[in-house]
Amino acid sequence: MSEPDITQVEIDAVNRVLQTPHLSIGPVIDEFEHAWARFVGARYAVGVSSGTAGLHCAVIAAGVGAGDEVITTPFSFVASANVMLYQNATPIFADIDSQTLNIDPNQVEDKIKSRLRAGARFKAIMPVHVFHQPCDMDPLMEIAARYDLLVIEDACEAMGAQYNGRAVGTFGKAAVFAFYPNKQMTTGEGGMIVTDDTEWAQLFRSLRNQGRDENGTWLHHIRLGYNYRLDELSAALGLAQLSRIDELLEKRERVAQMYNARLRGMPGVQIPFIAPQTTRSSWFVYVVRIASEIDRDAVLRELAARGIPARPYFTPIHLQPFYRTRFGFQEGDFPITEQVARTTLALPFHSNLNAEKIDFIGETLSQILDSRRSLQ
């Protein structure tokens, strides 16, 4: 489905760290954080062990606790909702826009109004920039201001993306990026929190380091903390990848455009939609929509049988077994999310995918869709 883009630059960077006594809490993480803050356009960046760890720290900083509610999307990786449960709070879902696949601001406001009438205690909105495209941030920020809510951006899938010329990660009180190997750039495992708030940045550094004080004093813990540190080897890999970020994003853009050219107009396939306000996509994955009358899961099985890995992207969070059991969610609760989830299909995607492979994938997909339509 994907593979990291690793060169001798990254190998040399990691080897240099291995020749030092500092494998954690050393100078490279500081350098990576400063470079990432410059890249995003934030005052502070704090490296953590994963995007999930970063989101957890962010909801802690927002004061999210037992009985609180945070509004977010059901069309995301499960971590964006799970972090609220870590704090004994409740994720409240709002349905998505059928074109952008991001949370719908109108649905957000409707859900806030209805929950407030029921006596809910909202703390924040967590928009998730899904796949490669920023959420519609202007109305979301207006809603947050109107109801005095914090905004925490889940930008784990959208590093480098821009909304009306402004980088994702610069709208909310904090934002979180992730560097898993299938992302636009990688540290192996790892993530980064950004914020312009000095106190929040200090808190993040404490939370990731077992609750130690600002100086990281050994065996002196001033709050409940976690082992969410990003090690020096990962930071070195990330710093090397960041030095190539324009190249990496341009290569992914080129692969996406090759896919677009091959699949555009193919019966039964809808290529990814780009909203007018998305002034830069960052292409985390390449997800198409299969016509609703075609059995998407059958298409997945036939692709796999012909040597092409593909995945449904995403299964709605509210229909995951754990969420059904805990909250009683049922099919029909978020109809747009569910309709989208039944039809989305992620194709193999990485920065070094070549035209020959894309042509093979496109031709195979076309043949399968033709055969499926002939069965109807």
Provide an overview of this structure:
By secondary structure, the protein is α/β, with parallel strands linked by helices. The protein has two domains: 238 residues, Type I PLP-dependent aspartate aminotransferase-like (Major domain) (Aspartate Aminotransferase, domain 2); 129 residues, Alpha-Beta Complex (Aspartate Aminotransferase, domain 1), CATH 3.90.1150. It has 13 helices and 13 strands. It has a seven-stranded mixed beta sheet with strand order 1-9-8-5-4-2-3, with helices on both faces. Strands 7-6-11 form a three-stranded antiparallel beta sheet, with no helix packed on it. It has a three-stranded antiparallel beta sheet with strand order 10-12-13. α6 links the parallel β4 and β5. α2 runs parallel beside α8 and α9 packs parallel to α13. The mean pLDDT is 97.
Brief summary of the model shown:
This protein is α/β, with parallel strands linked by helices.
List keywords for this structure.
single chain; 376 residues; alpha/beta; Aspartate Aminotransferase, domain 1; seven-stranded mixed β-sheet; three-stranded antiparallel β-sheet; 13 helices; 13 strands
Task: Examine the secondary-structure arrangement and name the CATH architecture of the largest domain.
Answer: 3-Layer(aba) Sandwich
Overall pLDDT level: 97
CATH-derived topology of the largest domain? Aspartate Aminotransferase, domain 2
Number of helices: 13
How many domains would you count in the coordinates?
Answer: 2
SSE run:
HHEHEHEHEHEEEEEHHHEEEHHHEH
CATH-defined superfamily of the largest domain: Type I PLP-dependent aspartate aminotransferase-like (Major domain)
Helix-strand makeup class: alpha/beta
